[in-house]
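<purpose> Linking amino acid order to shape
<body> The protein record starts here
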Amino acid sequence: MANEAKRQFRGAYDHVLDDKARVIIPTKWRESLTEGIVLCRSLDGTHCIWGFAENDFTRFLEELDSSVPMGDAEGARQLRLLQSSISEVEMDKQGRILVSPLLRNHAMTPEGANVKFVGMTSRFEMWNPDRYEQGQQGVEPQELLNKYDSFKRSKAE
C-alpha cells in the first residue's frame, strides 16, 4: 500500500479522453493508486467525477453509510445514486484508466475531449475543463481561509 503521507492529490493536470474512453492518470499520482481506483459521480452538485484510492474510498463509503440512519428514505435514495455510479478501475501499463459511459455522461466529457484533473488532497476530481472554469468564476480564496479559521476556533473551544 502506498505511504499515507504520499496519498495526497495536489495540483491540476490536463489530459485527453481517448477514443476508447481511456484517460491517463497524472504521473505524480500513480504510486498512490496502485491498489486500485474507484471512480464515482460527485456528491456536491457539480458535474465532475470523484476518484479515490480503493482503500480510501472504502473508508469514505463506510463513514457515509453509517451516517445515514436506517429508515431514512431520502438518505437511502442518495446512497443508491452514489452506489450505482461506482466504477472500480485499474491502471494499465501506460497509466490509463477506463471511464464508464455513466460517469462520462455525468461529467459531460465525450471521447476525444480534454479532461482536467484537480487534486483535492484525499481524492481527485475529473472535469470537463469548460465546466471547471465556469465553476471557479467568482471563487474567493479568502473564503476558504475564513472557514479554516472558524474550524480552528471551534476545535479550540
Summary: The helical segments are 54-66, 73-85, 101-107, 129-136, 141-156. Residues 141-156 form the longest helix (16 residues).
